[in-house]
Amino acid sequence: xxxxxxxxxxxxxxxxxxxxxxxxxxxxxxxxxxxxxxxxxxxxxxxxxxxxxxxxxxxxxxxxxxxxxxxxxxxxxxxxxxxxxxxxxxxxxxxxxxxxxxxxxxxxxxxxxxxxxxxxxxxxxxxxxxxxxxxxxxxxxxxxxxxxxxxxxxxxxxxxxxxxxxxxxxxxxxxxxxxxxxxxxxxxxxxxxxxxxxxxxxxxxxxxxxxxxxxxxxxxxxxxxxxxxxxxxxxxxxxxxxxxxxxxxxxxxxxxxxxxxxxxxxxxxxxx
Length: 272
Ligand SMILES: C[S@@+](CC[C@H](N)C(=O)[O-])C[C@H]1O[C@@H](n2cnc3c(N)ncnc32)[C@H](O)[C@@H]1O
Description:
The chain has eight helices and ten strands. By secondary structure, the chain is of the alpha/beta class. A hairpin with a 5-residue loop joins strand 1 (3-4) and strand 2.
């Protein structure tokens, strides 16, 4: 069932309607799985809704603009692997910076998906300003509204760590990729350069929550950031998890001494 909302948004789009969408902004009803996942999802969604207005400013400020370079690298690495006329889904796209970078740096048709509407509204406005035709879809990364094998590429930047079920998220990415399709995962990781690592940890755990809290008005969101990173698997463990999820040719690049890592993998041509 498709319904035009008052702001020109489309709500209640059925799963099949979400295949190869051409409108600018489509919304789907999400169906989370367990009660625990549902509770986690609503906390994460509310947290990002609360900081959405300051999210971009803080990203660039707190990372000294490194986040822009990291996203460009994601686009460059993915581009090497994509076929002509590729379709790429940026999952947990937030305010759309990676989707926009993919749109500008590759020839692919790019889609963005996120379950936080205020983040998507900013993404949609930015795409409009930059005349980038990117459909943004409101959807949960654990239950994406696309048939199996829909995309040549999938990206997720600083999103995997926020999922209630990381293995479930990886399985969902594998499912929506075509055989031979590529995944690129950008996430904070474990700094590997002695000296720099301890300085960075001090900044990340002590300075960032204070600065982020003061500017965003949400101290908890910027305490959650280092906490969730410390609970998240480091680069080696994440590479193993991606392989265990069924991807092949899994490899990673450390960015800025391992502060972040870009993991790449391929959906096998034949499933085993
Ligand atoms: C740290 S932001 C990253 C946004 C963007 N990818 C970037 O690089 O700036 C994390 C995003 O993940 C989204 N997110 C978290 N869990 C999600 C889920 N289960 N399904 C869809 N989006 C999710 C949040 O709404 C938020 O926009």
